[in-house]
Amino acid sequence: LVGSDGSIHPTIFAEMSALAARTGAINLGQGFPDEDGPTEVLEAARAAIANGVNQYPPGRGIPDLLVAVAEHQHRFYGVTLDPERDVLVTAGATEALAAALLALIGGPDDEVVVFEPHYDSYAAVVALAGARLVTVPLRWPDFQPDLDDLRRAVTDRTRVILVNDPHNPTGAVFGAPVREEVVRLAERHDAIIVTDEVYEHLVFDALHVPIATLPGAWERTLSISSGGKTFSATGWKIGWVTGPADLVDAVLAVKQFLTYVNGSAFQPAIATGLRLPDAFFLGIGETLAAKRDLLGRGLRAAGFAVSTPSGSYFTVADAAPLGATDAAAFCRELPHRAGVVAIPMTAFVTPERRGEYATLVRFAACKRVEVLEEAASRLAAAG
Ligand code: PMP
Ligand code: GLN
C-alpha cells in the first residue's frame, strides 16, 4: 500500500469495488452489508438531524454516546468504565487505530507486532508513524498463530502489539492461549496492546472475549470498536476507543488534529443502537452465521477449498483446486468470468510472505441471502 518512495496507492477495497461497479459483478469484495441496520438506529439519526444536532459535538464525543459505550461494555463484558475519562469517540475504528498508533509510536526504532494477513490500514499507519511492522503469520486453514512465532516477534523494541479479534480477513477468533500470551508478552516487554474488535458481535461459536478483560491487561490496553459493522452503517464512521484515562488522553491529543470531531447526528443514533436489547446483538451473529454457511456451501460446490470462519464478515477460500496459481490475477478475472468480485489475500500480507497466500481469496458473506445464492450459482456455472 505504501510504496518504498512513501507514495500511497489506492486501497484494494476501492479498486475492487470500482471493478464491481464497472462490470456489474456481485461485490463480495469490500466488506459492507447491502441492507440497512435496525430501524430504531436509522430513526434516531433522522430525529437528531431534525432536532438540530448538526454542529460540532464535544471533542470526546457526545456525553450520551460515552455513557452508552460504557453501559454496553458493562452489559456484555462486565467492564466498568468512567464514561468521562475512559471513552473517546472517533471517526470510525480507522481513526481510532491511526490516532492510537501515532500517539504511542515514539520513533523509527519502535516496533508494532501484528498478525498477518491483516487489515490494510495497519501497515499504512505504522508506515505513516515511521515505525517498523513485525508480522506473525496466521496459516490456512484455521489461522491461529503459532505461540512460538509470537514469542519471537515481541521484544523490548515492541511498543505496540496490535490484535484484531474477530479477525479480518481470515475470520479467525483467537483462542484463550493466544489472548493470554499477548498479555504476558506485553507485560514482560512493557508494550501496549491495541485491540481492534469491530466484529465483536459478529461471532458464530462463542461469545467474544475482549483482551482488556484478562488479568493484567486493562492498564496497558486500548480497545477499539465501531458502530459500522454492528449496526450495518459502515458509512457513518462512528468508532470509539476505551482504556485507562492516560492512554485515552494520548489518543485524544492526536485525534483532535486528525478530524477534531465527527458525525454529530450519528452519535446519538449509535448510542440508541448500543442500548438495543441483547436479542438484537445475538441475532446479528446468528443471521451472519447462516450466511457464512450458505456462502461456504456455494464456494465448495464451485470447487474451492473453504476455511470455516468463527467470526467477522469474511470467508477465505483456496482457489488452487480450480487451477489458480495467483489469487490477484484470479480476482481480476473473476468478475469477467463469473460476475463475482472477491479480494486476493495477498492484499493483506507483506510482500515477502505473499507466496504463502498466493491462491487464497477472501469473500464477504455480509450480503442478502438472494445475492449470496446468485453469486454461488454464478461461481458454480463458471466452474
Ligand atoms: N478494522 C477492521 C478489522 C475492519 O474490518 C474495519 C472495517 N473495514 C475497520 C477497522 C474500519 O472500521 P471503521 O469503518 O469503523 O473505520
Ligand atoms: N472493512 C471492509 C473490508 O475489509 C472495508 C474497508 C474499506 O473499504 N476500507 O472489506
Describe the overall structure.
The strands form three sheets. The chain has a seven-stranded mixed β-sheet with strand order 2-8-7-6-5-3-4, sandwiched between helices. Strands 9-10-13-12 form a four-stranded antiparallel β-sheet. With 383 residues, the chain is of the alpha/beta class. The chain has helices spanning 12-23, 39-50, 63-77, 92-104, 120-129, 147-153, 176-188, 227-230, 245-258, 266-274, 278-301, 327-338, 369-382; strands at residues 26-27, 87-91, 111-116, 132-137, 158-164, 192-196, 221-226, 238-242, 305-306, 314-318, 340-341, 343-344, 360-364. The protein has two domains: 12-30 and 279-382, Aspartate Aminotransferase, domain 1; 39-276, Type I PLP-dependent aspartate aminotransferase-like (Major domain) (Aspartate Aminotransferase, domain 2, 3-Layer(aba) Sandwich). The two termini are 32 Å apart. Helix 3 (63-77) runs parallel beside helix 10 (266-274). It has 13 helices and 13 strands. The longest helix has 24 residues, at 278-301. The structure holds 4'-deoxy-4'-aminopyridoxal-5'-phosphate (PMP) and glutamine. 4'-deoxy-4'-aminopyridoxal-5'-phosphate (PMP) binds next to helix 4. The site of glutamine (GLN) has 5 residues, from loops.
